Amino acid sequence: xxxxxxxxxxxxxxxxxxxxxxxxxxxxxxxxxxxxxxxxxxxxxxxxxxxxxxxxxxxxxxxxxxxxxxxxxxxxxxxxxxxxxxxxxxxxxxxxxxxxxxxxxxxxxxxxxxxxxxxxxxxxxxxxxxxxxxxxxxxxxxxxxxxxxxxxxxxxxxxxxxxxxxxxxxxxxxxxxxxxxxxxxxxxxxxxxxxxxxxxxxxxxxxxxxxxxxxxxxxxxxxxxxxxxxxxxxxxxxxxxxxxxxxxxxxxxxxxxxxxxxxxxxxxxxxxxxxxxxxxxxxxxxxxxxxxxxxxxxxxxxxxxxxxxxxxxxxxxxxxxxxxxxxxxxxxxxxxxxxxxxxxxxxxxxxxxxxxxxxxxxxxxxxxxxxxxxxxxxxxxxxxxxxxxxxxxxxxxxxxxxxxxxxxxxxxxxxxxxxxxxxxxxxxxxxxxxxxxxxxxxxxxxxxxxxxxxxxxxxxxxxxxxxxxxxxxxxxxxxxxxxxxxxxxxxxxxxxxxxxxxxxxxxxxxxxxxxxxxxxxxxxxxxxxxxxxxxxxxxxxxxxxxxxxxxxxxxxxxxxxxxxxxxxxxxxxxxxxxxxxxxxxx
Length: 586
Prior knowledge:
With 586 residues, this protein is of the alpha/beta class. It has 4 domains: 2-83, Arginyl tRNA synthetase N-terminal domain (Gyrase A, domain 2, 2-Layer Sandwich); 161-250, no CATH class; 262-387, Rossmann fold, CATH 3.40.50.620; 408-577, Orthogonal Bundle (Isoleucyl-tRNA Synthetase, Domain 1). The chain has 20 helices and 15 strands. The chain has helices at residues 2-16, 41-48, 52-61, 85-96, 131-145, 161-172, 177-180, 191-205, 209-223, 229-250, 268-277, 330-344, 360-373, 408-425, 432-448, 460-463, 471-487, 500-522, 526-545, 554-577; strands at 26-27, 36-38, 69-74, 78-83, 111-115, 149-153, 281-284, 287-290, 299-301, 311-313, 319-322, 350-356, 381-387, 390-391, 456-457. A 4-stranded antiparallel beta sheet has the order 1-2-4-3. Strands 6-5-12-13 form a 4-stranded parallel beta sheet, sandwiched between helices. Strands 7-8-11 form a 3-stranded antiparallel beta sheet. A hairpin with an 8-residue loop joins strand 1 and strand 2. It is globular.
């Protein structure tokens, strides 16, 4: 709204100066000089064939004088805008009285299905499963905060080859004799059994073609719900989902739906018929496929350096709907899932997938088939938000020293232990729940401050620091404000600007509010993370330079209380969007 006010004042001034134009305003690139700037006079100089500085000056000379904004021209032709103390104070006081703290909701709200989490049944969760729930949960909360209706689906991988591999290995290890040979008691499927069976089977399939073929056939029997294959499958799924829910709960990820690929099974035949009826399929080496490449398409091969010549792969390969033996693949279930979602939830505007960036081509294939066949309506957006990898300090995907993939439960315990050490060094008694909030918050902030599509380094020492651009620094800022408020009378008065540190705090609050829309459009939370770091940092400067607790002037004290409460509420609001809990002490 502040941008709108400034742009309207400039527009009206330009109109009086003889220019019928619209203008755009942004935060200043040089905040020490001004708060906002307008650069449009450079473009106008070409249109009106006039000196851009003269245009800017004539516009500023015709802007209506007011108590809130000061306009001046800076060479070569910038219109600089400063907010007065009266304006900053008015904004701060209005935000304090607003439940949303000055963040407007979207007028046009959309219905969104978000697909994130994506853990695989029968496989232990590992470090590669971290980014999807972290990013997805925060985007979900952001969308809802801005007014969208969001349905979050964990979409478990529970219908693919890993199921056949796991069951077959359990069978060969003699763990399923009760079902197939009628020997002994019915076994209890345990997590330990699955954690042993799947890795063994996964390694074996790469070197044993007979075993791989057997696993394919076993998977097909599960998908056809043949017994006892399907009965065993349900037991494996139950054990796995219980463990998955536990770990996602520790990460603060909450889902409306706990569906999986298996839930789309009843839509497979209908999906394939729709695609066949459109004349989109053909047989290739016994498999049913859909050609999705477009004319002139080449797929860029990622460069290893900026100086490398860009090379390209062959055009997009076809999407495979059915294998040679009639079994379905991930693409088939993903397409069927989109059909299922559109039939279950009417009027869906967007379906978003938060999945590894390396799955880009898979989603291009799936989305194209859905659009070509009409399974996805023309106006519906299908979006893949691809994220980069979490790497170790060596720049390679984060693994143990022996080269094994690190389990998610080990990562969580690593975070808890590190946070516990920090608490102990600060003289705070160890509490696992407290350490979990700090540790997981540190990891989330360390992830989300990066652009989603970028790789980043998992640096636990850096993430856990209580200073700098870290989660604990932001958490500690709220803890500190709560501590200050507990020591002084909390009756707040009208907030009024009295020093530069307060001005900087209000400017940063404006930037926090602006960052929500930036994050929504770019589908990454990095702008919000940076904005709240700057807000927390400016509050720290204010607190270090001003005596808040022992302030004798009643009017100033009440103004300080109002400021503290506003900063606290803004940080709490933002941390809630980031799904980062605030501890009571640190």
